[in-house]
Specification:
Blueprint (H helix, E strand, L loop, with lengths): L6 H9 L3 H31 L6
């Protein structure tokens, strides 16, 4: 589910989380960030080392 919410409201919600919930949220965000970085790195590798057309 996706919702639109102001950033300040999101910060308020995060501040009310327990330490274990904050740790879980941090882990989830780091995993998502790592997955995005991996996809970006793979794409850059393909562009730099992929097939090249020449005459």
């Amino acid at each position: 589910m996706k919702i639109q919410m102001p950033f300040q409201q999101l910060l308020t919600i995060v501040k009310t989380l327990t330490p274990s919930q904050k740790a879980r949220l941090k882990k989830e965000l780091e995993e998502k960030s790592a997955a995005i970085k991996t996809k970006k790195d793979d794409f850059i590798h393909l562009l730099l080392n992929g097939p090249v057309y020449s005459d």
